[in-house]
Amino acid sequence: MKHVMIAAGGTGGHIYPALALADYLKQEGVRVTFIGSSQRLESTLIPEHGYPLIAMDIETTQGGIVHKIAYLITMLKAIRDTKKLLKQEQPDACIGFGNYISVPLIIAAHQLGIPTMISEQNSYAGKANVFLGRFADAVELAYERSARDFDSKKVRVLGNPQASVSASIQKNPKLLEEYGLDASRPVVTVMMGSLGSASVSKIIDEACARFGDFQVLIAAGKKNPYTFTTENPNVVIRDYVDGAGMLKLSDLAICRAGATTLAEIATAGVPSVLIPSPFVPNNHQYYNALELSEHGAAVLLEEKDLTPELLADTVNKLMNDSEGRKKMQAAAREMGKPNACADTAAWLKELCK
């Protein structure tokens, strides 16, 4: 296997796992080319990581009948153009990481007889991947729950490739000093995504006054409109923190339930309180969080039920139960799949043979 083409785009949840696999393939001597939109996150993120990106602009399915007709027209053209591209590039395999941008690559490759794979990082499979499941030769999953949407003969649960990146990160105690934390005291890290969450931030802010005698590091989010006002001396607030690094050093994490975050939580083996975002397609963060909570690795709190009192009581109870946290750590590590990249790459090579 010498050349692989990857379609990834839209959000970091699709792009970062794709980049993780690409980095592994690159180390194995495989050339990687990306397909994505020229107008979304991948247009800058993928070239910044040193990979060529072939731009392909397709209308989204959002909107009324006019938008849907435009989507169909541009999609048919994209499939036709992608077939020409594949004949030129002659990749050994093609892989899609979800989102509508994966559709033309996987269908075109299928029509040309090129081995295909799709990777689904969420517990609730996205519409694009469910559709592409009938064309792809292989379906790589992060969670067993999403296997119900695909032909079982095509499925392997190998994990989110981002888990391999997280597993390779070494503990760096200097981070604690950098954020003004005491390495001898317990730490709770709070992260609500890179942009933060105004609604949840207010609840967290009010809960700070009720927290026990432990340190709390809050990543507020660079564009979060909410300003924290807590006067708790044990609370440190930063716009941004090294999330993957801090998970390795934390006694407890309070997070959203995006696919990448949960892959990092599992491989770090950190107990967590998960507050899934209700503002995502198919409520997939809820189902992601449900995976960890049902395995005893996390406590799931839905945003609609969240109050400062509930959050503080939950966190205090966990921080006062070291044995309970040890069990959660073990459960999280059991769900972590640190070999996700190697296993996925091996399956790609198997398909090519």
Label this structure with key terms.
353 residues; alpha/beta; Rossmann fold; elongated
Mean pLDDT: 94
Supply the CATH superfamily name of the largest domain. Glycogen Phosphorylase B
Structural class: alpha/beta
How many domains, in number, for the residues?
Answer: 2
CATH architecture of the largest domain: 3-Layer(aba) Sandwich
N-C termini distance: 9 Å
Structure in words:
The chain contains 14 helices and 13 strands. It has helices spanning 12-27, 42-48, 65-89, 102-112, 127-132, 162-168, 174-178, 198-207, 243-247, 259-268, 284-294, 308-319, 322-335, 340-352; strands at residues 3-7, 31-36, 53-55, 93-96, 116-120, 138-141, 155-157, 187-191, 215-219, 235-238, 252-255, 272-274, 298-300. The mean pLDDT is 94. The N and C termini lie close together (9 Å). The radius of gyration is 21 Å and the shape is elongated. Helices cover 43% and strands 15% of the residues. It is of the alpha/beta class and 353 residues long. It folds into two domains: 3-160 and 338-352, 3-Layer(aba) Sandwich (Rossmann fold); 168-335, Glycogen Phosphorylase B (Rossmann fold, 3-Layer(aba) Sandwich). α5 (127-132) links the parallel β5 and β6. The strands form two sheets. It has a seven-stranded parallel β-sheet, with helices on both faces.
